[in-house]
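anyone seen this seq b4? input:
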Amino acid sequence: MTHPEISVIMPVYNAADFLTESIESILNQTFTNFELIILNDKSTDNSLEVISKYQRSDSRIIIIDKDINVGPANLRNEGLKIAKGEFVALMDADDIALPQRFEKQINVLKNSPEIGLCGTWFTFFGSENKLIKHSITSDAIKISFLHSCNIGNPTVMLRKAALDNLQFDNEYVPVEDYDLWSRLLSKTSFYNIPESLLNYRQHNQNISKTKIDNVNRAIRRVKTNQLNQFGIESSDPKIDSYINAVSVRKRLSPDAIFEVIAAAKHLTEQNKKLTIYNQELLEKHIEKTLIRTIRNAGKYNLEFYKQLQKNEKALFRKINTLDKTILFFKSLIG
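predicted toks r here
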């Protein structure tokens, strides 16, 4: 295919058990003007055989077979470099795209030139079945990124031109998508189609503590990088309070919670000056975060309750009656 409108990038590593469903879900899209770039990351199973079988019957498939294992971030970057399409769709080798996914996403991007990236809702299947609904509009997505990645990576379709010189950073694996999209948010608008257009496979796998620690460190770096927009450096001694002002941290002490409240006030004031985020949405997000933080405090006492009531009147008024009652009795008994 000389001029595909969409380039689909699919990294593969030992996914032979799932590739048939995944590849066929792409080949059976109602929108057909695409190339499918499959990058085999030195799989040790028969993934390459499965991919080659489909390539022989469909000229839209391009195979990149790696001599060494380079990881998904580097594979996607390589796919982006050779992609011919104006639009790029991401896909994982074990997921299933619904037939109208490409048709609906490219319609959004063509009809709304301000949107540079379009995701969709998706459905977990495998170990559990669950519909994942992410924020829809760009302002809401941008706010939610302060807490977590609000785009399902294998649901992404984007304008290749919107990326400019941005790419996936291997240092952030396995949350390299959270890192890249958080950086792209300042350059273009995002949109999530409020419909599940991808089935996202979950595997029953035990994740080691080391891997969990690596994920948490990478997520913290992404959040810290986003706070740079407010003029807050990663070396700031109060960096944890700023992170916890936009991303709930449970079991904080009363003193730590008051530090988080102070940090939250600084963030809202900075945003008024810098207009990085929609002010109303940011204030609602922070308010919700603070109330959840108070509700999940690690310790309660009457001094904590009275200080909230007296010195944080605006926030205290936003706590509903039931939660205030529970908070009072927890504080009373310590």
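The longest helix spans residues 254-274. Strands lie at 6-12, 34-40, 61-65, 87-90, 96-97, 115-125, 130-132, 157-159, 189-201. kinda curious what u guys think
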